[in-house]
Amino acid sequence: MNAAAYKSFSVEFTDKDREHLELNFRLADTIADFIGPHCEVVIHSFESFEKSVVKIVNGHHTGRKVGSPITDLGLKMLGVIESTGEITPKSYFTTSKDGSLLKSTTCVLAGENGKPIGLFCINMNLSHPFPEIIKTLMPDMANAPVGVQENFGASTTEVIEQALEHAIFEVDNDESINLKGRNKAITKLLLENGIFEFKEATAFVSERLGITRHAIYKYIREFRA
């Protein structure tokens, strides 16, 4: 890419633009943690092509670090953005300098007034033995907590219902909780899981447990005290 093309892509950055970029740093850490050590996540800034990498996780896959330059493909993408306005995320296969096969995707990041200010890139190294990659995704091999309960309801009622079912199951299988303390223990679990943040939760739970809303409010006050 010639000097004139470089000049046409220069972006005047504001403090807000830098803030917009930095807001994605935690997302980069989250994605890398979720996918695992075979995934590199990079954020490029258009403020400086020579030192465009402002955030990178697992940079050992491509040998880059913060302060590394933008790639030639990144510059080519900028040309497409400039000429067509096309910013749809693109997935593609490429190779790193050590010959590793990477599956990559790139998303354009927008700053103040919607102007393109950088790229969010994910590179999955596919050259490692597949069982090695799978190990990082399995609960008995990964470092992530096992058995975390999450309710994926399509409505708030469904989330409340599923959470209540799990709370009932947990309490009814706990031999240390007697019948007298059952409803209070169920309410405690639901409170700890944040279920009473839903407006209709109190009415739903009281009806299902066969107790009054006043009783649930009383339990909640006791726990919060």
Name the descriptors.
225 residues, Beta-Lactamase, 2 domains, 5 strands, 17% strand
Protein topology:
Layout: H1 3-8, H2 15-22, H3 25-35, E1 39-45, E2 53-57, H4 72-84, E3 90-95, E4 101-110, E5 116-125, H5 130-135, H6 156-172, H7 182-192, H8 201-209, H9 213-224
Helix pairs in contact: 6-7, 7-9, 8-9
Summarize the model shown.
With 225 residues, this protein is of the alpha+beta class. 41% of the residues lie in helices and 17% in strands.
Architecture overview:
The chain has 225 residues and is α+β, with helices and mostly antiparallel strands. It folds into two domains: 133 residues, PAS domain (Beta-Lactamase); 69 residues, no CATH class. It has nine helices and five strands, in the order H-H-H-E-E-H-E-E-E-H-H-H-H-H. Strands 2-1-5-4-3 form a five-stranded antiparallel β-sheet, with helices on one face. InterPro entries: DauR-like, DauR-like_HTH, YheO. It comes from Photobacterium swingsii. This is Transcriptional regulator. It holds the Pfam family PAS_6.
